[in-house]
Amino acid sequence: MLDDFVLRAGLAGIGVALVAGPLGSFVVWRRMAVFGEALANTALLGVVFATLLHLHILIGVALFTGLLAVGLLHLERRRFLPLDTLLSMFAHGALAVGLLVLSRMDRIRFDVTSFLFGDVLATSPGDLGLIAGLLLVIGIGLARIWRPLLSATVHPELAAVEGVPVERVRFLFTLMLAGLIAIGMKIVGMLLIVSLLVVPAAAARQLARTPEQMALLAATLGCLAVLGGLLASLELDLPTGPAMVAAAVLLFAATSLLGRTRHERG
């Protein structure tokens, strides 16, 4: 029989994977992995923000990351620097400032490693309820904007002509991405959450023939990676977050081989 903390960890990880699959598919299609990395690296500043305002860490990080995501969108539109340069500066600068600020908060002790690489085994019943609530909101929101977001991803100019509110849809998608990154910090840590978004989606792309197939397959592979990493961490005494990401990379290698074999036979 599974211990309660293992069951909570598995449920939290599967919940994140189910939402990360479809959301990560759009990250892959829109080539937003670097944007996601920049958001993830702001999570430590979000921890400071939550602590100062006496908020739950997940809520504080989600709010702070969402605000910074909006700021990044604004800076991207102004185009005063190449986007990759801007995102790289922002990502590493935010991480450095977050570490510096946390180092000066002597009265409050933080386990920085748990923020960087996750601590899913420490998920409490309260954390699980909050994670479930946030994931439900993100999942419902993504389902509602799926078609317009897909249209805006495939051909934004044509989508705008057809009446799709491209900028609003992109704004909502960015907020959902920020929210999932905040939740994922608990599961695999801020340094690895983008991998859990991108790797299963990239693996699914090798086999899927439609966007919906890719989203569903990415969610499935993400769940397998979570469960495989959790099992490996328990059996081999490995850090859970990195084990989950490593499992996802192995699945990517397997699907790449399968996809190549299928292509050669086709």
Structure in words:
The chain has helices at residues 4-29, 33-40, 43-52, 57-78, 83-104, 112-117, 125-154, 156-161, 166-187, 193-205, 211-236, 240-265. It is an all-alpha fold. It has one domain (4-191): ABC transporter involved in vitamin B12 uptake, BtuC (Orthogonal Bundle). α2 packs parallel to α5 (83-104) and α10 (193-205) runs parallel beside α12 (240-265). The mean pLDDT is 86.
Number of helices: 12
CATH superfamily: ABC transporter involved in vitamin B12 uptake, BtuC
Q: Given the C-alpha coordinates, what overall shape results? A: globular
**Average of pLDDT:** 86
Order of H and E elements: HHHHHHHHHHHH
Count of individual beta strands: 0
| Oligomeric state as shown | single chain
Span from first to last CA? 45 Å
Main sheet record: none
CATH class: Mainly Alpha
The proportion of strand residues reads: under 5%
* Helix/strand structural class: mainly alpha
* Contiguous uncertain segments of 5+ residues: none
Radius of gyration: 18 Å
CATH architecture: Orthogonal Bundle
Descriptive keywords:
ion transport, High-affinity zinc uptake system membrane protein ZnuB, 266 residues, ABC_TroCD, globular, mainly alpha, membrane, transmembrane, ABC transporter involved in vitamin B12 uptake, BtuC, 12 helices
